[in-house]
Amino acid sequence: MTRVEITGIGLHPFGRFDGTSVTEMGVVAVRHALADAGIGRGGFQAAFCGAVYAGVAAGHKVLDSMGMTGMPIVDVEAGCASGGAALMLAAGAIRAGQYDTVLVYGVEKMPKGIIRSSFFEPWREQAGLAATPAYFALRAQRLMRESGVTKHHLASVVVKNRRNGVNNPDAMFRKDVTAADVLASRVVCEPLHLWMLCSPNEGAAAVVLRKGSGGGVELAAAALRSHLPGSVLGEATPMSGLATDDITPPTSLAARAAYEEAGVGPDELDVVECQDTDAARELLSYEELGLCNPGDAAKLVETGATEMTGRLPVNPSGGLLSKGEPLGASALGQVVELTRQLRGDAGPRQVEGARLALSHTVGRGANACVTIIRR
Amino acid sequence: MTRVEITGIGLHPFGRFDGTSVTEMGVVAVRHALADAGIGRGGFQAAFCGAVYAGVAAGHKVLDSMGMTGMPIVDVEAGCASGGAALMLAAGAIRAGQYDTVLVYGVEKMPKGIIRSSFFEPWREQAGLAATPAYFALRAQRLMRESGVTKHHLASVVVKNRRNGVNNPDAMFRKDVTAADVLASRVVCEPLHLWMLCSPNEGAAAVVLRKGSGGGVELAAAALRSHLPGSVLGEATPMSGLATDDITPPTSLAARAAYEEAGVGPDELDVVECQDTDAARELLSYEELGLCNPGDAAKLVETGATEMTGRLPVNPSGGLLSKGEPLGASALGQVVELTRQLRGDAGPRQVEGARLALSHTVGRGANACVTIIRR
Amino acid sequence: MTTVVRDGLFTVGDSPHLVGGRCGDCGRHHFPLLGTCPYCSSDQITRAELSRRGTLWGWTAVTAPPPGYLGDVPFGFGVVELPEGLRVITRLSHPVEHFTFGMPMHLRIVALHTDENGDDVLTYEFTPEAYDRKIVPTGEAGGGRA
Amino acid sequence: MTTVVRDGLFTVGDSPHLVGGRCGDCGRHHFPLLGTCPYCSSDQITRAELSRRGTLWGWTAVTAPPPGYLGDVPFGFGVVELPEGLRVITRLSHPVEHFTFGMPMHLRIVALHTDENGDDVLTYEFTPEAYDRKIVPTGEAGGGRA
Ligand SMILES: [Zn+2]
Ligand SMILES: [Zn+2]
User: Fold this and answer.
1) What is the ipTM of this complex?
2) CB of D63 less than 8 A from some CB of B
3) Catalytic annotation present for B274
4) Which residue ranges make up each domain of chain D?
């Protein structure tokens, strides 16, 4: 099979940038990624852009304003997994022999506050059922019941990610917090406090993929999966589901496919970036990604394994809890972070000797994407 | 190279369906396409959905409400070419060996009236420059100047397409019109009268692609291209462009790529479905697709070559002028029509003996997609 | 006068029911009623009035008005498991501090808010068996284990 | 008082200009001023006040208010070619019936509408040299050849 390599990465910081358009943020990320790959106009034959709320032609506007159009440009939407979906399509097209080099980028400028989207039907909104954080809260409550997770475990995830974020100049929040601070923040939906939830925000990320010649960082797998029918608290948030806990979640489906594609297992990973929409979502991801056995998320966090000093650091970038979540860009932001880690370029947040890394996003659709990179 | 075949087609009629959600329309099209392909749940390994204004997770909602999720589902946006882009990605993934069978569909429920989109910046809207039909009018005026096209040629395109649409039960407008009727309709933007413009509307279309075993209808090419920098009246509608007429339009870029991929030339085509957003756009497409020489669009239409009785019928379905334009679905609607033509299933609008067909969409982004199918 | 948040979601009266569907092929139930089975794709669906009684599977309280919601906050929100093998997303009566996993719950129809015609807009919620027909005090929500 | 539809689009006064950019690498002009050349991607851009005079390349009339537009209809709309090698999308003075291809045009600054503060909102348009400073009658538009 054709080897696909990551030859360029670029980022526009994640945060709030009132005077900056989503297009301008995209230009910054793309410019950095192309410079990093050592290519310019004509150096890539196709472009895939992850975007959710950025409007029509979001990806085109970025390349249009750089005078770089002409090739196929496709905007891709798969909720929080949009950037991962774009990466998967780009890698597939390279493997199909369609292109040698593809630009993949993601852009977002989320509206402030709770997102009003067409995802919910009008009656659900009117009945108060379009309460996104309440679904997260119920998921957290069930995890607490089934995996021995307490509010202190949830707080410790926030403390870990915020501490990591202090060392990430591209993050939105860069202050250390204590568990007491987290538990003192306002309750949004019991058991979730405000600081346990990530902030939708703005940013852009870009990655250049190339048909590989060996060496460098390899994109070993990029797998996207949607939810299976029947799960009432799956990210698809249906109005009803089956009374069973045996429905495999989309994250596990994508993880299995990615491990198989890369020919590796979770015990071989050196570093992970995973979806921490809320603190419980990170712990659930540990179980769904196979980083621990089902029901052992609390135990894993207690061992300190996922701290920077542990055996498998998770979210060295600070995660979405520090960076915020610009939907179209967040998955590629993880890949940018992990490429830095594998290159040994992560500075004060470097995971020493990292050679195999996994990134994970999951959200509306439902969609989950798992990417594995290695050097 | 792997042969990719079209093994199923399905359509929800194009029109206005007030009580029907965009998801329900998608279900109708997908159900028909799967039945036509003789597959059900588990019969396809990935799904690509073209959608522009249908909101987040548009494609997912269709499969979710059919209990058919689990595989990768990607929503794809490339303006009027969205369905073509989805088709290109699906064919690429099959050729890459990722999947054997892929479901491709497009859905749309356009708001009534002029579309307010984020495409234009606020100041352009405020200054009255977000006047989409005015761009079409200027393009028509330049074509009239350069290719000897008159308003009577424009009216004759409308008369042809509306006459074809009479025989298409899936079209929105099914009444014969005369050139006098067309020219008596209100001027929207000189030289374009109301009846020379297609209506944004609602609908869905679906196509099943399969790794081919020979026989059946082959997807010989699906090429997507964006605009080159510098054209002031290109579908990207920039605020300024270069004072030159030598910039190759995206339709020509996509057509050249598609002819090369399929190994055929425009003179071998038996039937064409092309983008007739307005009557002048169809004539311009004749030139850009190489159906005639540059400057000869008026002559081609005068010979009657593109009538049902001519040597190369264009828009036997009635075109967008009869069907209306549901952005995410329109490109796949063309492919559904052409597959019927190649199967000999087009009833009273059958082009006898059609074996090689081309479909073409172009619009915002800018993007153009050209697809070639054959049996 | 009253109106409903969506036609066909539930029946009203002394003994209200949620209106779902039962699949003739796989036998499973869903809610609201759809034309296609959301588990097996069959279109062999018959209308089914679902049990009024179920058990509590999860709960929280919504403290800020979600998009498009015009009623009061806080309100209870959770999942009730019905004997048909179905888990249903639902509003819950508030307060929620005495809720427990598996607690018996039953359906009632309540007013959300008053619409522009002065009509009460009705929706469904579940409430603990013990709470029904009693006036309950409002208070802070508490769904998780600290 | 007056305000402008967007800062930095044009200069005002007796001799107004559109404000574009000139690329230090490829030498081409663009409008409005950007940080990146839209033809060659260079960031070597210098601000350039564009010629006030150009020629008419295309025209029509907008008869219904486009989205977000608060001014009067109909109004002229078209493309003017400037000596810098640039074609610019622009409002045109109305009526348009005497317009011809290549007709000399020049820039002027006009009021679009009055905003919520009572200020006139200014934008740019082009008008035939011959029309300037004259009051012109309104009438039907006619951009094409029938
Ligand atoms: Zn069923
Ligand atoms: Zn330049």
Assistant:
1) 0.91
2) yes
3) no
4) 2-132
